[in-house]
Amino acid sequence: MDKLDKNAAWKRRDFIKTTFTATAFVSLGGLDLFAFPSLEKTIKTVTLNNGVKMPILGFGTMDLRDALGEKCVAEAISLGYRLIDTAFIYSNEEAVGKGIKNSGIKREELFVTSKLWVDDMGYEKAKAAFYTTLNKLGLDYLDLYLIHRPRGDVKGSWKAMEELYNEGKIKAIGVSNFDNKQLDDLIANSKIKPAINQIETHAFFQEEKAQESLNKYGIQMEAWAPFAEGRNSLFVDKNLSLIGKKYNKTNAQVSLRWLYQRGIIAIPRTSKKEHMIENLQIFDFELTKEDMKAISKLDLNKTQFPEWT
Ligand SMILES: NC(=O)c1ccc[n+]([C@@H]2O[C@H](COP(=O)([O-])OP(=O)(O)OC[C@H]3O[C@@H](n4cnc5c(N)ncnc54)[C@H](OP(=O)(O)O)[C@@H]3O)[C@@H](O)[C@H]2O)c1
Q: Does the pTM exceed 0.85?
């Protein structure tokens, strides 16, 4: 092979390597190899305050239980999702664990989050609950473990989580549904600062002030219910549709892109393969400043889940 041939061969090899990695996981889902050429090679990551990298887009699993949960998790991973969000209270950790196993993807390529439920708060109970979660998932470590809600013995639970973190059983520890005061209390009484605060965030509850304070704390914000579960007609909201129309994108994609551009991790949940794919297609367009401004006007500045507060 002369030099030119060799160059061409290398170029072809590089093309195949990059293009294939970009689309291989799509083809695993039974789709055409080049069906989604715009899908990025890997989902971008954010670096948490302890140096751990976490995908900025993941897969939520609430309500996906038993055989459905198992199937959806395996399918989501085959399509390219690497961050999987579960919790003890979702009663699906076993199903999620089976889905992970069935996906055939190496454990170290995945980022698995679970959460400590309110009934298990306190030093001893938190430790036991963590091992129950780990056993149910069939894993030997978690990437992220969160205090699900600021209830009961937060201090004792956090101490247990700090110890598990120091033993290498958890790569990062964090909280969910904490306000500033609850974060202040926790930080004042602990050795390790939370890496994450997972809170309700979507177009109708934008939590801009919370994001400002989390930035000051050095805590990464993660959005739960990025679609508000479709409440307030998010999927057909005409303001979001008007923006989406410019880019040939759906309201779901505009919502996820808007979170991505704010630097917020999102974990949309779906039981449908076409929605799993759709929700990944957010890296090939960019919302303008005007689009972002128009979305910020949709903020109702209140929870869409009053029954949970
Ligand atoms: N920390 C906490 O307290 C907390 C609380 C709630 C949730 N979470 C986590 O956050 C995750 C996401 O929140 P969520 O599950 O409450 O709600 P969500 O992701 O806002 O919405 C889920 C709903 O959106 C639909 N959907 C998904 N993609 C769609 C698309 N492209 N087009 C149209 N409809 C679509 C799904 O229906 P289909 O199945 O029909 O697609 C499902 O009904 C949860 O699964 C859980 O992991 C955490």
A: yes
